[in-house]
Amino acid sequence: MKSSPAVFLVICVLVLPAWAPVSASDRGIVNTSHSAYAKLRSVDMDDVRVALRMASGVDLVSSSALSQGDVAPLVGGVPLSDGVIDIGDVVVILRKAKGLVTW
Fold first, then answer.
1. I need a surface site. Which of 28, 42, 66, 80 has the fewest CB within 10 A?
2. Cα–Cα distance between 70 and 83 in angstroms, integer?
3. Residue ranges of domains in the chain
4. Which residue has the higher pLDDT, 40 or 103?
5. Can you give the C-alpha Rg of the chain in angstroms?
6. In terms of C-beta density within 10 A (0-12 exposed, 13-18 middle, 19 or more buried), how is residue 93 classed?
7. CB within 8 A of 12, min separation 6: which ones?
8. Coil, helix or strand for 6?
9. Is the pLDDT of residue 18 over 50?
10. DSSP class per residue in 27-83
11. Angle at the Cα of 47 (from 16 to 70), degrees rounded to 5?
12. Other Cβ atoms closer than 10 A to 95
């Protein structure tokens, strides 16, 4: 049986915030620094959790978090910022954390 992305998102929004809170100031979410990709730090599930909390409105998005975590859409395998952290960014960060995309 295939589960829908909406079910996954609902589960994540309900379950992830219940874990130990990690604020955007504690984690850099994704350090893309869009002009210097060679210096990326590793991306992990804490980054995914922070991005999901911001995308769902649980945490506020700071300008620092926006500049680092706004990584969707990927165009030609490179992040193209669209000015918001939304579910697209969460998916890209999750894929980066699991090694499914590189940039």
1. 42
2. 7
3. 5-97
4. 103
5. 13
6. buried
7. 52
8. helix
9. no
10. S-S----TT-GGGPPP--HHHHHHHHHHHTTSS---HHHHHHH---SEETTEE---S
11. 115
12. 17
Tokens of 7: 């079910």
Q: Which pair of tokens denotes residue 2?
A: 């295939």
Residue type for position 67: S
Q: Partners of 36 in the beta sheet?
A: none
Residue with tokens 């869009």, as numbered in its chain: 34
Q: Is the pTM of this model over 0.70?
A: no
Tokens (6 digits) for 46: 């804490």
Tokens 């769902």 belong to residue: 56
| Residue at 39: amino acid letter | K
Helix (H) or strand (E) run with residue 88 in it: helix 87-97
